[in-house]
Structure formats: structure tokens, C-alpha cells
Here is the input.
Amino acid sequence: MCTVCGCGTDTAEHSLIRGHSHSHAAGLSSARMVQIEQDILGKNNQYAAQNRRWLAERGILALNLVSSPGSGKTTLLTETLTRLQGKVPMAVIEGDQQTSNDADRIRATGVPALQINTGKGCHLDAHMVGHALESLPIANGGILFIENVGNLVCPAAFDLGEAHKVVILSVTEGEDKPIKYPDMFHAADLMILNKIDLLPYLTFDVAKCEEYARRVNPTIQILHVSATSGAGIEGWIDWLICAKPPIQA
Here is the structure.
């Protein structure tokens, strides 16, 4: 039994193939690696389907926020929570390898947050999220923000039961990220281009970045935001409100 996520594979085997389907490991054939990956993703998808049903029954919008480390994801999230306070019920699941720093920042806004430390794991999975839902208080009709581990590779493959993946890309990272990490941008429904207040000081090509993003995902929506200056935040808030599902009868 894997001690990381509870799936039926060996923990060491799970750690070897997380996000690395083309890697090599001593003692494991390529066929065995593929089989392990299929088993893990299959089990994860079962948990994700359970989470999705649970959320849909309660009319809760769940968003999987993904990005590289340092993209400003947590700052954007705290600003979002502050602006939505009193308008809609909210809760946050925080994923990091270590520390509860981000969850502490979230709780300072008054919104309940549950920290998941993945240790050597490079992403959250649906089993972890399902356990979090058992103890995280969130009212029907609310919004659940899942801040995934900072990583543009592994989280792309793991469905958590969310309604949408939202990828946050900072203008300090380089406009070619969408074609360097195409799986993530293909999986996302929305790309938030963050830290746009820094554009005057950078050589970041916004048009080229958007072209690259739409090359790998022609239907991706794109918002321009600065979590620090507040520019574009209202467009993000409007997107959230429009995305909220009705509560099932």
C-alpha cells in the first residue's frame, strides 16, 4: 500500500513514476512502469469521480490552482478571498511539500484552510482531497480553492475532482512556458497571467505567450492580473461568479 496516497501500489514504485512516465528505474521494465502509472491514475480517477459527485451535490465550485513556485499563486488567492468575503462561502486546501506557511496566510483572511504536506510527493491527488473534504467546513454553494504544489509537470495528470484547472503564469517566468510544459496548459481551462504590473520592467512578450498557450489549447481563456496592484482582479472575480454551479435538487 502506498503511504503517500493510499493507492494499491508500492510507495517506492509510486514515487518513481509520479509525473515521469518515460523515466527509468532499476529493476523495473518499461512495461511495468507503464502498468504502475495506469494503476495509479485509474485509482486516482475513481477518487476524483467521488469528489466530483460530492461537490456537485452541494453546488460547490472546486478549482485546482496550479503554477510554478513563485508565480504569486498564494498572493492572488489571499486577495481573491479578501474581495469575496461575505459574498460567497469559501474554503481552501493548501498543498506543499513542507510547512504550513501558505495555510497560515489563508487563515489570516478568515477563510478556513486545511494544509496537506506531500513530503517527497510533487502534487496533490484525489484521495488526499477526499480526506480533506471530510473535515474542511464549506457551505453549500461555496467555492473550494485547491492550491496545488508548485509544479507545472505532475499536477497536470492528476484529476482532483475539480470543475476547472486554473494555471497561473507570472510574467517573470518567460513567455514560452506554455510550450515547455504543454500538458499543464492543455489541461487548464483558464490561464491567469499574473504580475502584469512588472511588464514595464521586463521583456516579456504577452502576445507571444498567448499565442503559445492557444497553440497547445485553442479554447483556453486568458486573464491579465496583478495580485499586488489589483489590476484585472475584478475580471477574475466575475469569472468565478459565472463559473459557480447551481445546487442540485
